[in-house]
Amino acid sequence: MSQKYCYQYPHPAVTTDVVVFTLRDERLQLLLVKRGGEPFKGSWALPGGFLDIDEDLESCAKRELQEETGVSGVYLEQLFTFGKPDRDPRERVISVAYYALIPSDRLELKASSDAADADWFPLDELPELAFDHNQVIRIAHERLVSKLSYSTIAFQFMPEAFTLSELQSVYEILRNEPLDKRNFRKWISTLDQVEETGEQRRTGQHRPAKVYRMKHPNRVEIIR
Amino acid sequence: MSQKYCYQYPHPAVTTDVVVFTLRDERLQLLLVKRGGEPFKGSWALPGGFLDIDEDLESCAKRELQEETGVSGVYLEQLFTFGKPDRDPRERVISVAYYALIPSDRLELKASSDAADADWFPLDELPELAFDHNQVIRIAHERLVSKLSYSTIAFQFMPEAFTLSELQSVYEILRNEPLDKRNFRKWISTLDQVEETGEQRRTGQHRPAKVYRMKHPNRVEIIR
DNA sequence: TATCCTTTGTGTAATCCAGACACTTAGTAT
DNA sequence: ATACTAAGTGTCTGGATTACACAAAGGATA
Fold first, then answer.
1. Torsion over CA of A144, A150, A152 and A158, rounded to 10 degrees?
2. Average pLDDT over residues B190-203
3. How far is the alpha carbon of B121 from chain A, nearest alpha carbon, in Å?
4. Is the pLDDT of residue A85 over 70?
5. How far is it, in rounded angstroms, from Cα B200 to Cα A71?
6. In angstroms, rounded to a whole number, what is the distance separating the alpha carbons of residues B204 and A134?
7. Check whether domain A13-148 has CATH 3.40.50.1000, yes or no
8. Predicted confidence (pLDDT) per residue in B146-175, tens digit
9. Which of A2, A149, A201, B99 has the highest Cβ tally under 10 A?
10. Chain B: nearest CA to A3, how far in angstroms?
């Protein structure tokens, strides 16, 4: 094919890459795709791709997310823009990285056409990654952990309806430490972010748990 | 000139823009340059410009900062990447925005060659700006204010040597409220970030103040 | 139908941190 | 000597965070 888009000065290519977090099997996991083409063919990498010339950055990230996971309407935030001159061997590529949080009940993967394969990996068992994607993931994880302490971002991992024990478990996984049940519930109630649905949930031979929902499912509040 | 840089797919242009904050005349001010060329010729805008094809993003921002203010070695942090398809009427432009904090003793402006004029403006007396630069500034200001409360970023406005009253004044300007002297000093001492130089400073007909310096002048610590 | 098992759900006391608040000290000018 | 001004310093109170243990509800089983 001919080189038909010409400029007076050299232009870099622009991509978006998305770090897709979820909680699966009591662990923080993220989505990787196996690269079907060069460079790094066969390596695992973050889902992402080139920005269409008339497409907004966030739309591009949402599109990648939709193509790789089939989900939309989840929490998505711009993370950082990476642009070391040699980060892609083909040409100069600026990558605007986003990160997304997927509720644990919405992760039906569908392998996309341009990815030979896609799978979830626990954060502490990542393979070697293409490009500078290990660095991107490290920064995304730092952002997530830091937002834990001053926002309600962790609620974005919850399904529509959940129990307080499930919510506590999410915090325990993310912070990697056990929490006191009474203090946790006291703290949650001061946040004023959840309400009872009136339903109960029976799992196993013991007292059923009250079911809650978020008051503002799509909002991430700054707290403290 | 001919269009000699050609690609198989259309590429956006990439720029960096820098929101340069300083404290002048007891106010938070920022640097704007008057645009010498189209579009928005004659309008005020953030200092910035196109990324060289082999230049790192942060290097590009540092270069703009150096060209417009003559300073280097100051605090510079990536802010956000703006990429609405129509934000520049010439062509698709992705702008990676940075913000910088300049100590109040280092702001000798030198008008650069490609800016007809450059000047400081108080944040609350900004003129109409080119492109989406009003939005960029708003987000930079939000970031600065929020970092105030959980980091030592405000120290980056201080000269090498300063008194505790001067430091308190910086916080009062940035937070736009008076602070209690004893509580402020108690808080500063818990931070363990400053040390006495042994010098004193006499200004006016009253008790001289002890002079301090930062223990780690180039580091911004996360606190709390 | 009584007992056991498991998870849900709840309160109080102790400690730490943040905020309110006023006077003495050191120097200059008259 | 006196007056003026900004520098420098400690205590008390209220609110928030932490530590900590037992009763309640339901299912399974004997």
1. 40
2. 96
3. 28
4. yes
5. 63
6. 57
7. no
8. 999 999 999 999 999 999 999 999 999 999
9. B99
10. 4
From B123, B132, B121, B70, select the one nearest B97 (Cα to Cα): B132
Assign A116 a pLDDT band (cuts: 50, 70, 90).
Answer: low
Integer Cα distance of B222 and B214 in angstroms: 15
pLDDT value at position B69? 86
CB contact under 8 A, B11 and A9: no
What pairing do the DSSP bridges indicate for beta strands A48-50 and A13-24? antiparallel
pLDDT at position A51, please?
98
> Is the confidence at residue A2, as pLDDT, over 80?
no
- For B52-193, strand residue ranges (E) read 75-82, 93-102, 115-122
Rounded to an integer, the average pLDDT of A52-75 is 94
CATH topology classification for B13-150? Nucleoside Triphosphate Pyrophosphohydrolase (3.90.79)
Is the pLDDT score of B47 beyond 90? yes
Rg of chain A (C-alpha set)? 20
Provide CB contacts within 8 A for B180, sequence distance 6+: none
pLDDT of B1 higher than 80: no
> Among B122, B201, B130, B207, which Cα is nearest to B163's?
B201
The architecture CATH gives domain B153-214? Orthogonal Bundle (1.10)
| B205 C-beta less than 7 Å away from strand D | yes
Structural Rg of chain B based on CA atoms:
20
SS3 assignment, position A146: helix
B57 pLDDT more than 70: yes
Measured to protein CB atoms, the chain D nucleotides within 7 Å are 3-11, 17-21, 24-28
The encoded tokens of residue B162 equal 């300063």
> Hey, what amino acid is at B202?
R
Sketch the domain layout of chain B as residue ranges.
13-150, 153-214
B100 and B107 Cβ atoms separated by less than 8 Å:
no
To the question of pTM greater than 0.90 for the whole model, the response is yes
Tokens for B131? 């492109």
DSSP-H helix ranges across B46-151: 57-69, 133-150
Residue of B nearest to A59 (CA): B84
Asked if B9's CB is within 8 angstroms of A6's CB, the reply is no
Q: Is A53–B83 a contact, with Cβ atoms under 8 angstroms apart? A: no
